[in-house]
């Protein structure tokens, strides 16, 4: 497991003034991303305060050496796939050298920075495959209860890290419009299905996991080695059309209810940056089965979980007009994962399936047990039966056009700097596809 080092020193400050005390991107974070400026091609950068450090420019100025230089050379195609494929060594070397380069006592190079506000963020990698898990046990329980009040969790849940293959093509970074999907809906109150705009549009509060080196087909990744195949983390909003989902999902699981869009935060927060916020996997409740041996690793159980605070807020069009701030719908943490990310990786590859650099995994919705920590509107409104009242006086069962949903993530620990994930926003736009019945 990654240890803390001098790059995590909470007293470290940067010559980039906006980094000092920055809520997301102080010098202790140094997340990687792909940005463009003006008409220039997308290139690799690092978020530092309100600025982006241009990595190819740092390389060109001959300020990097050895494995750190190799890491930036691997981004020449304008994606992080090559860097992710290199694994932890070059990524850690880059972090160490960038921390020294940006430190307050180093020579300032303001010419290597771009104001983040003037840049466009892109997907950090070519995402070959996207898989969404279901490891948030309280979300699984809450949603299962709508269908099976006495026995909400299916019998496989505590043995299998449940997942499904999502759609990689429709993953977008923060700010992409959330066009209300159309599809087949058949509420219980109607006898025949109809095609039209989704009526029960929802968000899901999740973490995304970026795959690093990965495995060859037929060569599973043992759980004890899985951490070395994780390149970083982001926030993930798995937008969900609940009415379409309810009609289409049996027997093969989610399909068009999920594949219209997934929004990610564009910065890849590395496992090295998150080292101080690792925690033991919370113990399973008494009576739960132990994980099968292929999913059990002593070191993973001891330090394979994370303490990351996750929040979701809403701001409707009316709230924006009235100047009202976003309203919190849920505050949760990554503590509520029943399986670790290493167990997700080990299980995914256990049948020989190959994972590749830049593949994206979602954890599933990470709800807290209490109502103030629910990670979907389905749970907040009890499947639409208890509308939530907003500060504007409006109510919501599900999302309306104009609603802005923001996911927010921060890692905090006493004695360390707080780091964040940056924005993961989307505003719902009206359906565009509504053919005559
Ligand atoms: Mn999901």
Task: Tell me what the structure shows.
With 437 residues, this protein is an alpha+beta fold. It folds into 2 domains: 6-122, Fumarylacetoacetase, N-terminal domain (SH3 type barrels), CATH 2.30.30; 130-429, Fumarylacetoacetase-like, C-terminal domain (Fumarylacetoacetate hydrolase, domain 2), CATH 3.90.850.10. It is 17% helix and 24% strand. The chain contains 10 helices and 26 strands. It has helices at 55-60, 66-73, 81-85, 88-102, 137-147, 242-248, 298-303, 317-321, 341-349, 377-380; strands spanning 32-37, 43-48, 51-54, 113-115, 119-122, 130-133, 163-165, 171-173, 178-179, 182-185, 194-197, 201-202, 205-211, 230-237, 240-241, 262-264, 278-279, 305-306, 309-315, 327-333, 360-362, 388-389, 395-396, 404-411, 419-420, 424-429. A 7-stranded mixed β-sheet has the order 7-6-21-13-14-16-8, with helices on one face. Strands 9, 19, 20, 24, 25 and 26 form a 6-stranded mixed β-sheet that branches. A hairpin with an 8-residue loop joins strand 10 and strand 11 (194-197). The longest helix has 15 residues, at 88-102. The N and C termini lie far apart (57 Å). Residues 132, 204, 206, 238, 362, 364-365 line the site of manganese (II) ion.
């Amino acid at each position: 497991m990654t240890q803390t080092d001098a790059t995590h020193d909470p007293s470290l400050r940067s010559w980039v003034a906006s980094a000092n005390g920055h809520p997301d991107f102080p010098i202790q974070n140094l997340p990687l991303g792909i940005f463009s400026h003006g008409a220039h091609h997308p290139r690799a950068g690092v978020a530092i305060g309100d600025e982006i450090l241009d990595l190819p420019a740092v390389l060109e100025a001959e300020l990097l050496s050895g494995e750190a230089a190799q890491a930036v050379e691997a981004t020449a195609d304008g994606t992080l796939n090559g860097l992710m494929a290199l694994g932890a060594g070059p990524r850690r070397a880059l972090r160490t050298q960038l921390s020294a380069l940006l430190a307050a006592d180093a020579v300032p190079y303001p010419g290597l920075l771009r104001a983040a506000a003037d840049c466009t963020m892109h997907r950090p990698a070519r995402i070959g495959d996207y898989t969404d898990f279901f490891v948030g046990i309280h979300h699984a329980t809450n949603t299962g209860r709508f269908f099976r009040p006495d026995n909400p969790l299916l019998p496989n849940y505590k043995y299998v890290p449940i997942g499904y293959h999502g759609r990689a093509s429709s993953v977008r970074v923060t700010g992409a419009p959330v066009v209300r999907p159309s599809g087949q809906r058949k509420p219980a109150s109607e006898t025949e299905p109809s095609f039209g705009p989704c009526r029960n549009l929802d968000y899901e509060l999740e973490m995304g996991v970026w795959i690093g080196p990965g495995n060859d087909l037929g060569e599973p990744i043992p759980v004890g080695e899985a951490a070395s195949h994780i390149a970083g983390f982001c926030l993930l909003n798995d937008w969900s059309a609940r009415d379409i989902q309810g009609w289409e999902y049996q027997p093969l699981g989610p399909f068009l209810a999920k594949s219209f869009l997934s929004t990610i935060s564009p910065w890849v927060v590395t496992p090295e940056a998150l080292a101080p916020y690792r925690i033991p996997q919370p113990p399973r409740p008494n009576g739960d089965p132990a994980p099968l041996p292929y999913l059990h690793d002593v070191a993973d159980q001891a330090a394979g979980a994370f303490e990351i605070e996750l929040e979701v807020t809403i701001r409707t069009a009316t709230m924006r007009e009235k100047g009202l701030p976003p309203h919190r719908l849920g505050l949760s943490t990554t503590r509520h994962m029943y399986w670790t990310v290493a167990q997700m990786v080990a299980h995914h590859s256990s049948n020989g399936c190959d994972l590749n650099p830049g593949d994206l995994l979602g954890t599933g919705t990470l709800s807290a047990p209490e109502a103030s920590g629910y990670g979907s509107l389905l749970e907040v409104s009890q499947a639409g039966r208890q509308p939530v009242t907003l500060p504007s006086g409006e109510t919501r069962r599900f999302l309306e056009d104009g609603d802005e949903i923001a996911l927010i993530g921060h890692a905090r620990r006493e004695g360390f700097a707080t780091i964040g994930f940056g924005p993961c926003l989307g505003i719902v736009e009206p359906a565009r596809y509504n053919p005559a019945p």
